[in-house]
């Protein structure tokens, strides 16, 4: 079979992949395909469909600025609506002919001679001048290898691989983890289960969630007067952006969030002993701040136990904690997050001189330039790459900036009459040497264990400042930072 040849190959069809596809479609200058391993678009919003799954960023901001959605029914959209929004974009922008669903990309190999990437996929080879990796950082579920887990006689699954076919009604269930996923799941299943043991290793900071329905009148207004929704989006953007002060400028501001968190806890949990176990001992924001009004009321139900003793092992019938207590259950649900270090796991990326990005990152840590390009891997663009995550605002804003930056890089290659551009090692090192000391002053370095931190406590995940700074810095390509090679 002849390989499919395109200007741009996009891997993944979540916000990143679809956003890039829309912009290339609007530009109508470059051929492109979207390679998606699943049979449906949507990325993380397709993969995660556990009960209660919703966004903890306001819906007005959790959509593309260039593709607003006047139809959001709530201030914080449920998963189904976000997935429908993403699916709707496929038809709205006629992306269907570009989609290659059920196509798993195994490897992307760069050929220095012709300056082209060869993508080995389950559906054959795709050859592309540029590759956009929109595979998401949180796609590989992490399940702790607890001793005895393989011998457990009941059902086991992860929050990101929810089994709707497993009946939980009246059953004894263990949920392990108290992160962003767990606090959405627990209130949904508590009314159904016979008994719930919630295994908490570290208590999260939980703040009230200002979630409410958006009235049909307001939705009509947004549909008829898009500017009204734009104004609301701008208002929310700046309100949320202001939170960046506490995360990145002066973590002492987080004392305010701690006060709010303690007040929320005091309002909802009467038992002082339980309250003490639910009170975090680290600064809010060091781990992701969670928002829920129904979490504490759910875990204070008489048929729920919050277990804070460490897990020793899983028996055939339940879970044994370090104090020797065994709690029998019918099902164990892991809400234990994702393997962030395996960012590239699904795709082997081979760059110049046979260098393998997966191996380099595994051995030496994860790093990129502007979070998008990586030295040694020309014409390759990462979406949601290293040090572009946020604690305080919408990732969709960052993704949009990255899409524009990647497109500007593509234009620069063409403007140079080159085949490819490779970011210079010095530029990449200089960039990272400048952001790492800034990260040391943020709330994420205030002393807690979190998935934000990689080897040696180095933060390879988050952006150290405001999102508008990132937008400003990525709005143009510093061409001196790149080596332009070959004649197109
Ligand atoms: P997470 O935030 O990483 O939380 C994992 C939980 O599992 C933590 O409570 C962790 O405890 C616990 N855990 C992990 N390994 C354990 C072990 N061996 N024994 C006991 N407990 C263990 O994962 P998540 O809740 O899936 O969320 C991941 C990220 O996805 C979030 O930070 C967020 O970025 C995103 N997310 C977003 C939304 C949204 O609304 N937009 C919703 C869900 C998820 P420790 O805290 O002690 O490590």
Q: What can you tell me about this protein's structure?
A:
Helices cover 31% and strands 18% of the residues. The chain is α/β, with parallel strands linked by helices. A hairpin with a 3-residue loop joins strand 13 and strand 14. The longest helix has 21 residues, at 395-415. The relative contact order is 0.14. The mean pLDDT is 96.
Helix % is 25-40%
Tell me how many strands there are.
20
Using the alpha-carbon principal axes, give the shape.
globular
The stretches of 5 or more residues where confidence is low (pLDDT under 50) are none
Oligomer: single chain
Work out the strand percent. 15-25%
Number of helices: 14
The helix-and-strand class reads: alpha/beta
- Major β-sheet profile: 8 strands, mixed
Radius of gyration over alpha carbons?
A: 23 Å
Bound molecules: NADP nicotinamide-adenine-dinucleotide phosphate
Give the terminus-to-terminus CA distance: 26 Å
**Integer average pLDDT:** 96
